[in-house]
Amino acid sequence: MLTKWKISERTCTVVNRGRLAISTPTKKPIVELDDVGVNYSGEVQALEHITLEITVGDFVGLIGPNGAGKSTLINVILGIVKPTTGHVRLFGEAISPKNLRKIGYVPQIPYSKNSNFPSTVYETVMMGRIPYSLRFPWFTKDDHRKVEEALERLEIRDLMNRRIGELSGGQTQRVFTAKALAGDPEMLIFDEPTSGVDTEAKREFYSILEQLNRDFGITTILSIHDLGVVTQLAKKIICINRTLYFDGLTTRFDPGAILPKAYNYPIEVIKHGDHP
Amino acid sequence: METILSSIISYLSTGFIQRAFIIGIIIAVLSSIVSVYTVLKRLSLIGDGLAHTAYGGIAIGLALGGIIPSLGDVDAYLVGGVLVILGSVMITKAIRSQKFSGDAAVAIFLTLGLATGVFVTSITLNYGFALDALLFGSILLVTWNQIYAAAFVLVLTMFLIVVFYKPLLYTIFDEVQARASGIVTWKFDYLLAVLAGVTVIVSIPIVGVLLISALLVLPALTSIQLTRSFKQTILLSPVFGLASVVFGMLFAIIQPHAAPGGTVVLVGLSILLIAIVTKKIRASF
Hints:
By secondary structure, chain A is an alpha/beta fold. Chain A has 8 helices and 13 strands. In chain A, the strands form 3 sheets. Chain A has a 6-stranded mixed β-sheet with strand order 9-10-11-6-12-13, with helices on both faces. Chain A has a 4-stranded antiparallel β-sheet with strand order 5-4-7-8, covered by helices on one side. In chain A, strands 1-2-3 form a 3-stranded antiparallel β-sheet, with no helix packed on it.
């Protein structure tokens, strides 16, 4: 018989023989990739030998040059791309619709395929509730409450009746973040969310992401090119270019040593204050 | 004016005109609702591809009817229906395989259906096909059986769209996001294609093979111009579809030489033009 309970920051484990072991807490893994490789049509090796772990509360900055496989890695985590080799586990289990519902995903340009889609901001955010309310064709009071909360949290309540095609890039990203939040996610994944967004809107957007991670404990993966933003926001950095070049705490990330290897050309890192 | 009105009223009291209006209204509502999904899924031309597949299927069915006289017109439409459903499944499969784009997949089936139809009709001309009716519609010759079939398809479609309202909406909005949130989107892609196929086969009597795609595009396109939400779009689309069919058919009654299929589509295009101009005027204020 093994009993566990939590005391402050440490976990005590009492074994039936009466011994007491005190260990530092092991954070629950949310994403586990074990030797993952992706090969498109037997020709393009998009990813190889990727082994990593993302745990509860992490804020991960995913970096790498164009074509490094960042979006493929995200698609593997989301179950959209099946790995050719290796295994992926989400929340300790194989990928399934049930555990995918715990993830909120904000793609690069969410409605670029159909910018003329007739949908209000409110309807768009409500789509984030669809995977949780498939039982009935209608939305419940609880769904509406969660949408209202997400709109409040992203400060876009005043936009709720606007058609999404009329919004600026920054407003659009807030709407799609609210949509992801409406599903009460345990993890948020952003794939280059601020492409085409102006500097001020970017700054505000990143501050919201930081707050969501800090105040609500939402695990976050942010795929982005801006190294300055990554080192400022992320607690952990994953640097890939087909294969893994760095996976560790931001404080241990040495851009001068890692980036030239990962980007495959000489890079001079210029520091602005404490950040590269 | 009085003469026109009295002529419309006298026509409306005849059985074949009444049947034409009944099936017209059913098909207007059906195609308008399905059109919202096909247009927003960027499959506007799927109706055209499936209609031509139906042409090939119906031609085969009619040829079989000529060879085996006990098979009537209904069986020809049944053969067409089976091939259309098969075609809709294969078009979806081709698109999902990512080996073909949506328009290329539709084009393959469009030409396959057309070529089959032309080949079969050319070698079996002796059996006397009603080719004009097939190509341009024959709404005035509609039978009660065709009306019952269209009504059944309308009820079934409405039921499926209500039951799967949410996942269907998410799938047409952004399939990748829907998949990433655990929705099994491929099922809804096939469902949508089959619904479009069934709509095509029951709509051929009203506008014919050549103009059917208009009914699967114009109502939704018009609605999208004037609405800001999905809910408004799906509610308003049947209004535009009904207006096209009813006014188009009334025009054909007033002008007896005008083919109803053509007038229905021309009225639909006029409504779309008015909607585009209205949107521009509204945007300028």
